[in-house]
Design goal:
Order of helices and strands: HEHEHEHEHEHHHHHH
Shape: globular
Structural class: alpha/beta
Strand order of the largest sheet: 2-1-3-4-5
Largest sheet: 5 strands, parallel
Strand content: 5-15%
Radius of gyration: 17 Å
CATH class of the largest domain: Alpha Beta
Distance between the termini: 27 Å
CATH architecture of the largest domain: 3-Layer(aba) Sandwich
Helix content: 40-55%
Number of domains: 2
Oligomer: single chain
Length: 215
């Protein structure tokens, strides 16, 4: 999916009157915390809590396919990326937020390759989890301080690499080959970069990088 596609999906999710959200985690306290954050992020959400993957199809029949799935990767029946693949097979059009304690760079990359939209560790701050939920639910508020989002020192090494490649006019396929990652992962990284810079296009990102000395 293109970045415009992501924007259209998130925009359409935010425009509807009813949102079905599934929260999949074995731990009731984690589910309870996520439910509170989701309600704070989107008051129109109808949330289904699940302790595992077994009740997914029944939940979809009752509440409809979810606009968003929030899930751990450590589940009793299936663990790791296989659990995520099962969810994406059932709901290919649903946004997925992975929130897990089993967080390594390899696991994050594998989850993004398998279709996760955002990957967070369970130690992530409530503020950042809320921001991720608002983004995926289409309820994110405009950044209050644009200058803060532009600060070069706040960019990751990967984001700085992307800016250089964008400035050279490289396509997503070119970037994927150069960085040895999939095109899907490139799109996710670009989406995060655009959010960080508060821009909406490759050209805007390149222009901002030049005038702010980020290259």
């Amino acid at each position: 999916m293109t970045l415009n596609g992501y924007a259209q999906v998130f925009s359409s999710i935010g425009a509807i009157d009813f949102m079905s959200v599934f929260v999949i985690d074995e731990h009731p306290l984690t589910r309870e915390g996520l439910v509170a954050l989701i309600h704070r992020s989107a008051q129109v959400a109808v949330i289904t809590e699940l302790g595992g993957l077994a009740g997914l199809e029944a939940a979809a029949l009752q509440h409809g396919d979810p606009a968003l799935v929030c899930m751990d990767l450590q589940l009793a029946a299936q663990t790791g990326v296989s659990a995520l693949c099962y969810v994406k097979k059932l709901f290919p059009d649903s946004a997925v937020l992975v929130l897990t304690a089993a967080s390594t760079l390899d696991q994050e990359n594998a989850a993004l390759e398998a279709g996760a939209d955002i990957f967070l560790h369970k130690t992530t701050s409530t503020h950042d989890i809320t921001k991720a939920l608002q983004t995926l639910l289409g309820t994110e508020k405009p950044a209050a301080k644009r200058e803060e989002a532009m600060a070069p020192e706040k960019l990751s090494k990967r984001q700085k690499q992307l800016l250089v490649l964008l400035d050279k006019g490289k396509s997503n396929r070119d970037i994927a080959e150069l960085l040895e990652i999939s095109e899907h992962t490139v799109k996710v990284h670009l989406w995060r970069l655009f959010r960080r810079l508060d821009v909406k296009s490759r050209s805007q990102a390149s222009h901002l990088a030049r005038i702010k000395g980020m290259l």
